[in-house]
Specification:
The protein is mainly alpha-helical. It has helices at residues 13-45, 54-63, 72-93, 97-114, 124-131, 139-159.
Length: 170
Amino acid sequence: MTPPVAASAGANGVSTRRAQAVGILLAGLGAFVALALVGMLAQETSEPWILGSFGATCVLLFGFPSSPFSQPRNIIGGHVLTSLAGLLCLHLFGPGYVPMAVAAACALMLMMLTRTVHPPAGSNPVIIFAAQPGWSFLLLPTMIGAISLVLIGWLYWTVVKRGVWPHRAR
């Protein structure tokens, strides 16, 4: 599947491949910039700004920006809801694979119910059960990190690509 950022440059196969290569390189640049900036914030503030699922978020945000899963509502809402589900289940039921599975299932249902599906966020309950963080995890890295990625994505699409993002639902 060709990333949406790699638009065709016409009937000429070489031009099309060049446009695809440029689109792929720019998607990689966006992911690099976003993760490097969030990583720098983590290092400078000694706070945990990084969440494992953010790498996959960048795949969608920069590689497939027109996907419904790549829109701010889905990125932020999906990450926050799934982390909330994970934290609730961890603190109500304790650690274990059954509570983790309950958390992941609840996270999926919450995203579907609220129309904020963001597939990378589906790993947040698993991450939470592996790390067993406190409630502050919901704010940082989850909410602040997701908002940061969305802001960096918006700046990237506005400045570097001169495109319009987020895409509006039809």
